[in-house]
Amino acid sequence: MKLGRILLYGFLIWVILFFIGWFLLTVVPNSMHILMLIIGVLLIYTFSKVVIDEKQIFMVGIVWLIINFILDLIFMVFILKNESYYSEWSIWVFYFILVIEPAIVKQLSK
Fold first, then answer.
1. Domain of 68?
2. Whole-angstrom distance, CA of residue 14 vs CA of residue 76
3. Where residue 71 falls among pLDDT bands split at 50, 70, 90?
4. Structural domain count, the chain
5. What's the distance, Cα to Cα, between the start and end of the chain in Å?
6. What is the pTM (predicted TM-score) of this model?
7. Mean of the per-residue pLDDT values for the chain?
């Protein structure tokens, strides 16, 4: 699989979750973090199945983490001025899942 495709999937994960997050923030702000984690796990699973043939699947998760972290930093912290964004526990859990889930999906698919 080409690096461009992996970058695209990482970007799509962020974009999809960004817009779902805005929707959930207006509809169910109290449950948003749990719902975002569940949706994030399902979304990462879906994209992990597409890149399952990658030899270095752990690096795919690292690339996705870097993309999501940078886009969160740019949009959530700098543009939207949400300085407390990284103090949320769910963000760090999501980043952890983003790194390990592709490897787990590949391992369980054998």
1. 3-108
2. 12
3. very high
4. 1
5. 19
6. 0.93
7. 95
